[in-house]
Amino acid sequence: SYFYQGVSALNNRKWESLGNITSDLPGTFMGYDVSLSGSGNLLSIGEPARNFIAGRCAVYERREAWFRVSVHDGSQQGMAMGWTCHLQRDARRIVLGAPGFNNGLGFVEVYEDDSTGQWKQKGFSYGPSFLSSFGFSAEFFPSDGLNNNNAFAVLVGAPYARDGTGTGKGEIYSFVYISGNWQPLAPTIIGDSAGDEFGSGT
């Protein structure tokens, strides 16, 4: 993976390299998904095909160079951890998706930096059905009323989920973590037609 920053020089725009990060193994699909914090100093990189598609998401911090500060490995072959890995803008949390988990049931989990360099799990959810690919996409989003600094909200896509009619229209789910509880935030949004793959992006 290669990373660049836009800088201004003599009123002309140019791109300055901030370095590159490469996988230690071939065929890991490193860089399939990447996310940069608002400050630009923390970076998450997915490797969903690593270790027989168990997958990995790693977090790097930019000092003079990029240093790996956290690793989240998939626990099951085929789960594709790191298919999506999205940092919160303030870099306090990261949401990880593994859409291949348990025959495509899918899985998402959120980790929070406890300010000591340790990332602790703060919430997780499984998909609605096999082959739904829950966790294909996931990201944080602002939600009105979440004034508690420890609360957060997440969108999760399941593009191959069925809506009870036998068709895979796709679905998007919303969750909130507040007061130590992880729970649905709003009704599921369902795609319009069979084959829409709604939820491929969030």
Describe this structure in words.
With 202 residues, the protein is mainly beta. Helices cover 4% and strands 45% of the residues. It is built from 2 helices and 15 strands. The chain has helices at residues 50-53, 101-104, and strands at residues 2-9, 12-20, 34-36, 42-47, 56-62, 66-73, 84-87, 93-97, 107-113, 119-126, 137-140, 152-158, 171-178, 181-184, 189-190. Strand 9 and strand 10 form a beta hairpin. The longest helix is centred in the N-terminal third of the chain and has 4 residues, at 50-53. The relative contact order is 0.11.
How is the secondary structure organized here?
Layout lengths: L1 E8 L2 E9 L13 E3 L5 E6 L2 H4 L2 E7 L3 E8 L10 E4 L5 E5 L3 H4 L2 E7 L5 E8 L10 E4 L11 E7 L12 E8 L2 E4 L4 E2 L12
Q: How do the helices and strands follow one another from N- to C-terminus?
A: EEEEHEEEEHEEEEEEE
- The count of β-strands is 15
Number of helical stretches of at least 4 residues: 2
* Low-confidence blocks of residues: 4-11
The best one-word shape is globular
Which structural category fits the helices and strands?
mainly beta
Strand content: 35-45%
Largest sheet: 5 strands, antiparallel
Radius of gyration, rounded? 18 Å
Q: How far apart are the first and last residues' alpha carbons, in Å?
A: 23 Å
Fraction of residues in helix: under 10%
Mean pLDDT level: 87
Brief descriptors of the model:
single chain; 202 residues; mainly beta; 5-stranded antiparallel sheet; 4% helix; globular
